[in-house]
Amino acid sequence: MRTTVGIIGAGPAGLLLARLLHNAGIESVVLESRDRAYVERRQRAGILEQGTVDVLRAAGAAERMDREGLRHDGIELRFDRRRHRIDFPALTAGRSVMVYAQTEVCKDLIALQLKEGGPLLFEAEALAVEGAESERPCVRFRYEGREDVLECDYVVGCDGFWGVSRSAVPASLSRVFERTYPFGWLGVLADVPPSHDELVYARHDRGFALLSMRSPSVSRLYLQVPEGTDAEDWSDDEIWAELEQRFETADGWRLDRGPITQKSVTPMRSFVHEPMRHGRLFLAGDAAHIVPPTGAKGLNLAVGDVVTFARALTYEKETGSTELLDAYSETCLRRVWQAERFSYDMTTLLHRAPDATSFEERLQLARLARITSSRAAETDLAEAYTGFPHD
Ligand code: FAD
Ligand code: DHB
Description:
Blueprint: E1 5-8, H1 12-23, E2 28-31, H2 36-41, E3 47-48, H3 50-58, H4 63-68, E4 70-72, E5 74-79, E6 82-87, H5 88-91, E7 97-99, H6 102-116, E8 120-121, E9 124-130, E10 138-143, E11 146-151, E12 154-157, E13 175-190, E14 199-202, E15 209-215, E16 218-226, H7 236-247, E17 260-274, E18 277-278, E19 281-283, E20 289-290, H8 298-319, H9 323-326, H10 328-350, H11 358-373, H12 375-386
The structure holds flavin-adenine dinucleotide (FAD) and 3,4-dihydroxybenzoic acid.
């Protein structure tokens, strides 16, 4: 098989890239190791930055998002039993975010790709990227019980943190910057209307909690739990009781309970692989970088990467110049490091580290007091949360 761009992975990065290339008249083939149902059900991100919303609209992939997505103009920070709202449009000249689940973004992009785009092969596992330094890189993959080769002009590794493409960059050229955290998130889906109409990020002595949503009738909730926790260790009653304590306010706010339909634990990690390009292999999304989820940045960064790649390749097709492709890694990494910084700041602001000293706890409260009493500090958070513009 032969194509212009071989895309490994049908998460948000790979699927959106295929769509952007299709719109630019550039051929691609997407290889995805899992089946369609798995990709469409995997519960992950929920928040789309303003820039991501704009990109999906421009790509003709926003029809259902515009009907069913929930525009949010703020979030609430909760600490010391008090509540503080951050008003995004007022602080950022009109920017906001959209609550629309990653599962739905993927479903919409898969449907479009199968209807209008190039091949998207499910249960096609990439085994290795070969010849990244040559003019003709290729992807070796397994499909329907046989090994095959996809010959390409370019390969884009959109295969997530556990994928194979990153390992095609020689170790002597790779630099990895990493931090792990001694806690994770227990995430649940519950059939109950969200108890607040905006997201609530709560800092509590017992640990962090987040109230989010998937629709007006489905809540998405997260609890900070110790590293290595098994979701089955927590009964539904224990989860609700813990959420109630962490969200408690002095003004009598109430958390409504409902049946929990899904629960899982996500570890927390900060990770950046540099460079994001080696020869004709480009890394995008979680294949190149991971952020802890507190800043809601992972999916949005993946979108930024593939927009940068699609623009660069379109420019090369139109002008013959590889200038933008050559700048890909540097261009992406500028945004990536800002998102790493913000995600780290939000994580350390709101979580309780198991070995935190009382001095560090006081500092956390001082940082929160600063954000909630200074328009400049609040603006800094609002700008980062709603997203930095694409270059
Ligand atoms: P992935 O979604 O990981 O997709 C990679 C794809 O590649 C997968 O489908 C995988 O099956 C496939 N693959 C892997 N190996 C191979 C192979 N060898 N061959 C073929 N295919 C392969 N981000 C936000 O922006 N906002 C949020 O609110 C947010 N919340 C989150 C909450 C949680 C609990 C979690 C876990 C993550 C959250 N994120 C959030 C992060 C976000 O989900 C990820 O950053 C995003 O999925 C990255 O997309 P991707 O396409 O790069 O990678
Ligand atoms: C969601 C996930 C996040 O990581 C976040 O910061 C906000 C919302 C969510 O899944 O809804």
